Amino acid sequence: MNYVQLDLAHIERDTSPIFDQPRIGDLANERTSVKLIFLDVDGVLNSSAERLATSINEKCLQRFCHMVHETDAHIVVSSTWRKHKPFMEKLLFSLDNNANGTPVAHRVLGKTVEIAPFERPAEILQWIRDFKKGFPSIQVTDWIAVDDMPLANMHPKMQGHCVLTTIQAGFLNKHIAESFGKIGHRDSPVSVMDR
Asked: Which of 35, 73, 140, 153 could serve as a FRET partner for 19 with CA atoms 20 to 30 Å apart?
């Protein structure tokens, strides 16, 4: 099954900044360290079963929101959804209105900048560098990228930081466990920054 191809030329671009300054300011007042999850949407929060690239699968969303809550992590949107305002609005609404009642949209700290098509590892690594430079009082202790692209094969610095999903199934229970193993959860923190 393939996604329906969309003509995105007429869809309003999302021109919001890459850092959500008010949220990061609040975060800096609350803590000195942060865990990050770089989120792709297609192939993570939906699958080829939905047949439309603008859909979100409720089960995948519930699993992802549970993982975010249990890891106490914050989200950076790395998906191509970040480029289109209606998609970002739908994503943020979905993150706050998932069926398991764990709103997590307030944990979105921003989005990666577009460098070039299929350069997601470089975009993620650039966001981390820019965050560290712009907000030196907040240490990035752990981070993962949840994506259906094999990011670990695309850049050596991505190895040990990727949770690979599939376009056929999206985010599954096994990905929750894998995420816990890479960035820990509230009851048993794990650090992967030096791996």
From this structure: 153
